[in-house]
Amino acid sequence: MADKVAPYGVSGMIAQGVVAAPKAASSDVGAKIAKAKQAGYSDQEIADFLGRDAAIGPKVAAARSAGYGAAEIVLHLAGQPSSGKAKALAEQRENYRRIRDIPVLGGFAEGQLAQGRGALFGWGDEIQGGVAAAATMARNALAPITGKPAGYTAKDAYDAARQASLEQEKDFAARKPVTNAVQQLAGGAWVPGGKYVEGAKTLGGAALRAAQVGAAAGAITGSGSADEGKRVPGAAQGALVGGVVGGAAPVLAKGGMAVAKRAWSAAREAGDRVVTGLGRDLPEPTAKQVAKGAEKGQEYVGNIVSRSKRALSGNEVESVGKPITAAEALGRTGISQLAATARRSGATGDNLEALLTARKEAAGERLLNDLSEVTGLSPDAALGDIEHIVKVGQQEAAPLFRAAFDAAPGPLQTEGLAQLSRRPVIKKALSTVAADMLNTGQDPQAAGFVVKGMTEGGLPDVVEVRGATAETWDAVRKAIGRQVERHPISNKPLPDAQSQGNYGIGVATRDLTTELKQAIPGYSEALDRSSDYLKADTAFKNAKKLMNPSVPVPMFRERYASLSDAEKQAHLAGFVNDTLEKAANGRLNLKALRTPATMQKLATMVGPAKARLLANRFAQEAEIAKTGSRMMPGAGSATMELSAADAEQKAAMGSLKGAARTLAEGRPIRAAIQAMTSPLVGAYRGAQVPIDQATRDEVGRLLQLSPSELDAVLKAAAARPRSPAVGRSTATTANALARGAAGLAAQN
Predict the structure, then answer these.
(1) What is d(CA 220, CA 743) in angstroms, rounded to the nearest whole number?
(2) Is residue 433 part of a domain?
(3) Whole-model pTM?
(4) CA pair distance 568, 610, nearest whole angstrom
(5) Which residue range is the domain that position 229 belongs to?
(6) What digits encode the pLDDT tens for the residues 327-347?
């Protein structure tokens, strides 16, 4: 039938020789057709019945092969080729033919007819029939005046208009099935229902509402699109299809719009790169855009939180004072989102770079706080203040020393002490103690010192010790440490290899200490709790060596067990100090600190529980350092090296200006790469974060907050009236999909 142009109807069949002339029609066949119509059978049912007749069947088959419909065939076989309906049908068909044959615009006009049917729930043919009937009634009523009657009744006009409309619809669908389907779907967008779907607060609610609208509209559409006698099945089919498609439509429509947003964002970001490449600044968001962006940004970040399935409140890393961002608390989803946002135009990149730089610079201080908190070590000790370590140890041991001195109240005189007092280092210490006595108004002679004049250094010259107390000899032992040679800048004692004097001081100190331990009851226990400078310094320095992975754990435990309490404290301080120095110089391997061997050594020093706590703190620092590197703007960027080189060569010139210059230099390939790289990267970044700049700035700001801060912001936002789960465009699209699918299903 698509090949026919004109004429339509029975006259066409006769002209083409498909069927015989009217007078050849059997009156018996006509009577049967009349009775069948009175009984309520449709033209299709009558034509099917006659097609099985041995005599008439070949004619019916030939007419169908030529493209004629059931109504035309039945009309001819009934012997009524010149009826009023036939005339009206011929006029209606001619009208549609003229529309179809309009040059260029014919297809557009037919598409508009299909769109109208979509908007009219498939009842377009009935409405057209009603309009034709009304026009015919008016025309016949005015015939006495105009002298131009229609030549057929209003009923003929109604039936003819409906039949011609259905024929045109099927003809258009056969010739242009895709255009017909799209136009009918578009027509469904004009139908009410989108507002109802839009009112849902969740995507699931929107799907339920769209299913309801789709089922209702589908029932009406299916009924209107079905043939006579098949209205009820058509309505049922339309309701089923409309409900199913309607329920899925919000998700499909929302997903499709998300893809469209990403495409638009990619194009916009690529355009922005072209603008900046020309050396121009992008316009800042307006106050209205900023306000809208704040609302959209909170909704956007709220969705990120939902997808991550992680809680913001009670974050473990934040609870111990670590500067973790909300993005890091949300895991890979939040980290990727913030990193992508920072690589696009807006304020996020600069703000994030400043935040991460400051956080990295403060890593050493945080590490010091962790070590001091967990080990109980004072920050001064951790920073290598040996004198502070000794002072603290002596304060803790003061009661033990007092008890030891009280146990030996009289003069302390041994052959060993007499011999030691002749050594230059100890003799100088005796003079120092005597000077201290004179400075405090005491008489060295009363303390058992025999003084004869002054030394070249201006100190009392002690030539002999007669009956000095245990407390006085302890003061002499301490005074030896004041002779230690120190580094002029760090003020730390020089190693024995660099200072022969320090070596002699160390030997003298050990010998005097051994003699005093033997002569004073309880003195050894007091020294174990306390320490002297040289021993503490030695333990401090040895910590670095003993913590080395090459030292087995059993050997470490043996060495550590031989230390006094004060030396153990100094050893711990040495480990902490070495860790901090490595962190300050960028050489700290936090992963190495968590190896089994290191953890066993830490457990030996501070206990298993504190060792595990330290390992956890180290792991937290390692993780925020790792994620900070990932999120740092420019890190890992494909254009980072190219941008740096271009900046050195062309200073303030934009990338496109640089490409123009390169082209002028006769290097077209490099010029093309320069011109395309930035826009292409921009398109990629834009697709990653499909939101405008004002919204991006808010998303970046929120993701840089701490987890608890973002949690408070989102809870406050949740208390405000919520926006619809789906926008108007999504709801309208869902409604149109449900409507159109129901109509097309009913037609098929």
Answers:
(1) 9
(2) yes
(3) 0.46
(4) 16
(5) 194-271+727-747
(6) 999 988 889 888 888 887 788
